[in-house]
Amino acid sequence: MKLICIGRNYTDHIKELENEKPADPVVFLKPDTAILLKKQPFFIPDFSDDVHHEVEILVKIKKVGKYIDRKFAPKYYDEIGLGIDFTARDLQSQLKAKGLPWEKAKAFDGAAVIGKWLPKTKFEDIDNINFSLKRNDEIVQSGNTALMLWKIDELIEYVSKYFTLKIGDIIFTGTPAGVGKVFVDDQLKGYIEDEELFSIKIK
Ligand code: ZN
Q1: Which of 64, 132, 181, 192 has the fewest CB atoms found within 10 Å of its own CB?
Q2: What is the rounded CA–CA span in Å between residue 101 and residue 95?
Q3: What is the CA radius of gyration of the chain?
Q4: Residue 22: pLDDT over 90
Q5: Measured in angstroms, how far is the CA atom of residue 118 from the centroid of ligand 1?
Q6: Is a pLDDT exceeding 80 seen at residue 13?
């Protein structure tokens, strides 16, 4: 399986990193080895001094598809989740400056947190889901899927033009404002509405 990640999908996060609003979504992949194993802490890798948390809504693909029209996209997922796209920001900035790919900064082992899954039927409107991240019991990021530049079904349409979606693939839909550095001994907890979906210790 693969993790398909979207960058710059929230206006406020774009402002924060001083990026221009793109004409198309930014897309990158993480391999399955990037998934942080259940109940494991996240170890800050020795090649970075500035690993950031990016909390993101996740969508799990349940059906093989290619060139999926957005109006059929809901047939391709039943579950919504929450995760973290850990990013070695210092390394990413160096790579960006040289016009090089981001993989080393985004796709390293443990860089993808995947929390508990919720049935999409739990939500009245997939484009109106509140989510947040607490760092040591203080809310550092909060967002709502209504604020996405490209909504979930549009993302499925877009990414499936390039990549065949397979059963079990996961889409990371981008992060809202408030990304920030993590430190040893931090505890990160992710929520959709009031439900805790993951709790990660930083080491
Ligand atoms: Zn991200």
Answers
A1: 64
A2: 7
A3: 16
A4: no
A5: 20
A6: no
Q: Distance from the CA of 89 to the center of ligand 1, in angstroms? A: 11
The helix or strand, by DSSP H or E, that contains position 138, with its residue range, turns out to be strand 138-144
Ligand 1 centroid distance, CA of 174 (Å): 5
Sign of the four-CA dihedral 200, 123, 11, 95: positive
> DSSP letter string over 170-185?
EEE----S--EE--TT
Note residues around ion ligand 1 (Cβ under 5 angstroms). 54, 85, 175
**Ligand 1 centroid to 25 CA: how many Å?**
12
Q: How far is the CA of 85 from the centre of ligand 1 (A)?
A: 5
* Per-residue confidence (pLDDT) for residue 200, from 0 to 100: 98
Average pLDDT over residues 90-96: 96
Domain extent listing, the chain: 3-201
3-201 adopts what CATH topology? Fumarylacetoacetate hydrolase; domain 2 (3.90.850)
Please state, in angstroms and rounded to a whole number, the distance separating the CA atoms of residues 156 and 149. Answer: 13
Q: How far does the centroid of ligand 1 lie from the alpha carbon of residue 122, in Å?
A: 24
160-199, pLDDT tens digit by residue? Answer: 999 999 999 999 999 999 999 999 999 999 999 999 999 9
